[in-house]
Amino acid sequence: MSKSLQDLDVLSHVLKQRLLKADLIDPFEVLVMDTGNLSKRLNMSASECQKLIDVVALGAFPDVEDWTSRFNSMDSFTSGDSAIDDVLGGGIREQSLLEIVGASSVGKSQLTMQSLVTVQLPFEEGGLDARAILIHASKAPPTERLSTIARTYFPESHPNDILSNISLLHVRDFQCLQHALDFFIPRFLVDGTKSKPVRLIAVDSLGELSRQFDSNAHGLAQRNASLLRVVDSCKRLIHKYRLSLVVVNGVSEAIQENQIATMNSYGVQSRAFSGQSVHSTKQAQLGLIWAHNIQTRLMLVRTLRKVHVKVTESEIRMSSTANGEAEARLAMPPKVEESEMNIDRRFKKPRKDETFAVHKRRAHVVYSTYLSGGKCEFYILPIGVRSVEMTRPDRRKGSPVPTCALTPAISQSHTQSIDDDEAKIWASISFSDGDEEDL
């Protein structure tokens, strides 16, 4: 509360003097104090003290504001894929902290790099026509990956023109990150962006920076204190300058003791926010301190199912088998001649007919303050992160071939002797379509 008891207009001069004499300055002291103790300190009856508490509560707290209209007026930009945009409620929203969490090689950095480019798209194409800042912990800047994505969304522009709108900032530890958020970035947002405003800040990755702390109690306390300071600085930035913040986080194995879990156990309740499920023992890093301060947690999972991709000069063909018919076709970006755009040779990669297999991946919202939850499936292709609907060729004869069979089929009489919980677990393993994560 910003106001003191002496600043509340709802209190009379006599009440203010009595509160001051009782050494009561902050409204919070009155609101949490028992009416009996308050009555003794102010020499007032219990009923009068209860009225005082009600008056202080009305005067100290701000008026309730309906945030529906303000929320709907906030800008958002596309992630580069319509299905992921639907999961995120229309795209990556401003003044929000989006965490992308997942194991290694699931597409966290790819989706983050893609958002650094899509925020530069014009408004009519789903972007914000703005610049971006990437705070990375890796030694080498991801310029080659960014230039590849830039050619997809801006085929008629030089990759350097797109990369010039992305400011790269390398940090070694939490101290460097804190200094950048408190001093460097606010100054840069005011003085360093004269052409286009900065509307996106991405951090890749916060989990890697947390490795500097020891795993003992003192190290965890230092990490939590650093996380709180970083979160406070991030929230001040995104609300003051109307920014979107995307943070990449890793996962760790959820190792639990061999004991009976109840509904009040941390291992059971943590599944509501950590991303852990029955089929996956992986959970997001950085613990409760970090989880309580983000708006949306988007978890990416790589499944067992693969599709075969053939890349040609003009299109990308996808099929379930190596030599099968194309079940999906995606157009490749137009190839710009080097004489027309004067593109550097390091950005010009020849395209050859090649076939390779890619894993299907799944993105789902673990929890969010403004989303009801959703999920979608996507692939990481040469043109970026894409959700593709596969249309299988018409087979007039034969039955669909199962994609995965982990256990042999059993008779119906045997399944009747299994209770409901065991049957659900058995069915989820026996008839899995191959979409579950490889454990």
Describe the structure.
With 439 residues, the chain is α/β, with parallel strands linked by helices. The chain folds into 4 domains: 5-60, DNA polymerase, domain 1 (Orthogonal Bundle); 72-303, P-loop containing nucleotide triphosphate hydrolases (Rossmann fold), CATH 3.40.50; 306-386, no CATH class; 403-439, no CATH class. The chain is built from 18 helices and 15 strands. The protein has helices at 13-21, 27-32, 35-42, 46-60, 68-72, 82-87, 108-118, 143-153, 159-163, 174-191, 206-209, 217-240, 266-269, 271-274, 287-291, 338-341, 412-415, 420-430, and strands spanning 76-77, 92-93, 96-102, 131-136, 166-170, 198-204, 244-249, 251-253, 282-284, 296-311, 315-319, 328-331, 354-368, 375-381, 384-386. Strands 3, 4, 5, 6, 7, 10, 11, 12, 13, 14 and 15 form an 11-stranded mixed beta sheet that branches. The longest helix is centred in the middle third of the chain and has 24 residues, at 217-240.
List keywords for this structure.
439 residues; alpha/beta; DNA polymerase, domain 1; Rossmann fold; 11-stranded mixed beta sheet; 15 strands; 21% strand; disordered C terminus
Average pLDDT, rounded to a whole number, is 78
CATH architecture of the largest domain: 3-Layer(aba) Sandwich
**Portion in helices:** 25-40%
The CATH topology of the largest domain turns out to be: Rossmann fold
Domain RecA family profile: 73-251
Organism: Wallemia ichthyophaga
Protein name: RecA family profile 1 domain-containing protein
GO biological process, one term: double-strand break repair via synthesis-dependent strand annealing
